[in-house]
């Protein structure tokens, strides 16, 4: 299974088994740093791993 280096909000919510709103709240708190690609918001896997530590 190949691991992606960037995840969308929905993919991240599924990965962490939480809601999209929780991801948005973490973003507002400054825990997760979003990256914009066009109109879409993505999160780097490195930042997510750092948050989980």
Automatic annotation (TrEMBL):
Protein's UniProt name: Helix-turn-helix domain-containing protein
InterPro entries, A to Z: DNA-bd_dom_put_sf, HTH_17
Domain Helix-turn-helix stretches: 7-53
